[in-house]
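Renewal narrative, Specific Aim 1. Our central claim is that a sequence can be written position by position from structural information alone. The example that follows is taken directly from our test logs and has not been curated for this report. It begins with the structure tokens describing the chain, in the order in which they were read.
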């Protein structure tokens, strides 16, 4: 699997985040509220809240990953550190979602760190 395929996996993971968070939120907020104007906020709690925060966190890092992978591809700097960084990013983010949903704190943070190490490895590969 190369970096572009891992980017596709990361996009699918983003959709999993979106749908899982939305489904959990709808159970608390109701379809009538979701189908309306949503003028009055209805915050979610528990697992739904954790899924919402996990998705927000994913959206904070994914653009960096996507940009770095595309730059590496366009400049011919794929493979090696870039590939390993992509694997670390996707593996870390994949582990992060169920760990956060389950409320497992330390391991969730370690999964996030793995994904950030992945981003750093990709960036290093771009400047070498």
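The sequence written for that structure reads:
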């Amino acid at each position: 699997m190369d970096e572009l395929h891992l980017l596709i996996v990361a996009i699918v993971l983003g959709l999993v985040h979106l749908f899982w968070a939305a489904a959990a939120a709808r159970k608390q907020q109701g379809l009538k509220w979701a189908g309306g104007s949503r003028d009055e906020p209805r915050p979610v709690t528990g697992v739904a809240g954790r899924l919402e925060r996990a998705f927000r966190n994913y959206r904070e890092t994914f653009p960096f990953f996507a940009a770095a992978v595309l730059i590496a591809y366009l400049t011919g700097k794929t493979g090696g550190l870039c590939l390993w960084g992509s694997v670390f990013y996707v593996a870390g983010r994949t582990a992060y979602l169920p760990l956060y949903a389950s409320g497992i704190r330390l391991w969730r943070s370690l999964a996030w760190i793995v994904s950030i190490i992945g981003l750093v490895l990709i960036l290093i590969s771009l400047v070498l």
